[in-house]
Amino acid sequence: GEHGVGLEKINQMCAQFPPEELQMFHAVKAVFDEHGLLNPGKAIPTLNRCAEFGAMHVKAGDLRFPHLERF
């Protein structure tokens, strides 16, 4: 792993790791952060975020709100 995944590289994790590995990351984080207080939404993508990222590929990049800035 790499330190500092944060928000900058989080979408690439959905493409880089299979769902089973992402689930393992969530399980390990849950052991140390049972209530999700440490850096919520960072380092490990949520399923919702992976689904949004995947939809961009499945729908050939058609976005629901194309006028909104993406980070």
The tally of helices reads: 3
Helical content stands at 40-55%
Question: Could you give a short account of the major beta sheet?
Answer: none
Give the N-to-C terminal Cα separation: 22 Å
Percent of residues in beta strands? under 5%
Order of helices and strands: HHH
Unreliable segments (pLDDT under 50, ≥5 consecutive)?
A: none
Q: Classify the secondary structure makeup into a structural class.
A: mainly alpha
Please compute the radius of gyration using only Cα atoms.
Answer: 13 Å
- Assembly level: single chain
Shape: globular
Total count of strands: 0
- Nearest-integer average pLDDT: 72
What's the short version?
With 71 residues, the chain is mainly alpha-helical.
Question: Could you describe the 3D structure shown?
Answer:
The chain has a domain at 10-58. Helix 1 (10-16) packs across helix 3. It is mainly alpha-helical and 71 residues long. It contains 3 helices and no strands. The chain is globular and about 40 Å long. It has helices at 10-16, 19-32, 47-58.
Salient structural properties:
71 residues; mainly alpha; 3 helices; 46% helix
Question: Would you spell out the secondary-structure blueprint of this structure?
Answer:
Elements: H1 10-16, H2 19-32, H3 47-58
Helix pairs in contact: 1-3
